[in-house]
Write a structure and sequence with these properties.
Length: 246
């Protein structure tokens, strides 16, 4: 699976980023205020040094200086809190973006983000003249597994399938969860026979069970829109539904 997201136009994390920017701005303002208070305290201390040691004015200056420094320390403490909160906001924003792009169960791209990535992959293939094969993968028996053993078992099956598919493809190939039990896989620089060979050479079991996937393949044509290639791969999957990844 590609390690870099396709930059989909998703709002995930945007509000937290705005909040983090504001917190950093507040922290900077507090630091500037703290520096101003420290400067004022230094002026008051200098003024106190010029007054009689035990005079009321000197004592007033030193008291004011002490208050300025205490306020400065409080400003810096609050600035540090703001920066910690900003860092937490940015961490949460990154997590929200990841959740918007990737499926938490399988690690595959979510449908919308994945289709954007596949579109870009097709543009690259047409630009460079490389072949591009799209695999349509259907998980066999997911509903039966859910009915027989519960949805937790169905989730384990989906996660196992995702791991099986990754064992067949390259690190930079795209894996997209297209539907509940359907995946798309974009294999750039592989023609149909090369893609079929990759899937045929992959491990044929998930645990002790036979290969739980039906696979259809479609090679990109110059006139193809993504929907056309998906439709052909889907049709190919139905034609060979019971023959596995051969």
């Amino acid at each position: 699976m590609s390690s870099s997201p396709p930059d989909p136009e998703t709002p995930g994390g945007a509000e937290r980023d705005v909040a983090a920017d504001q917190r950093d701005s507040d922290a900077g303002e507090r630091d500037r205020t703290a520096r101003g208070r420290d400067a004022g305290a230094a002026v008051r201390d200098a003024a106190a040094d010029l007054r009689p040691q035990f005079g009321d004015a000197a004592a007033t200056d030193r008291a004011a200086s002490s208050q300025d420094r205490a306020a400065s320390a409080d400003d810096r403490r609050r600035a540090a809190q703001d920066r910690r909160a900003a860092a937490q906001d940015r961490t949460s924003a990154a997590a929200e973006r990841s959740a918007a792009v990737f499926d938490g169960l399988t690690g595959a791209y979510r449908r919308d983000a994945g289709l954007v990535a596949l579109e870009r992959q097709a543009v690259e293939a047409k630009r460079t003249g490389q072949p591009l094969t799209l695999a349509f993968l259907d998980v066999i028996g997911l509903k039966a597994t859910n009915d027989r053993a519960g949805h937790a078992a169905g989730d384990r099956l989906l996660a196992d399938v995702a791991r099986l598919v990754r064992s067949a493809i390259r690190e930079y190939d795209l894996l997209v969860r297209y539907g509940g039990d359907e995946f798309l896989c974009g294999l750039l620089a592989l023609d149909r026979s090369g893609a079929a060979e990759r899937f045929s050479a992959a491990p044929m079991t998930a645990g002790t069970e036979p290969w739980p996937i039906s696979i259809g393949l479609a090679e990109l044509r110059p006139e193809d829109a993504l929907a056309d290639q998906i439709a052909r791969a889907d049709a190919d999957m139905y034609r060979g539904r019971h023959r596995g990844p051969a």
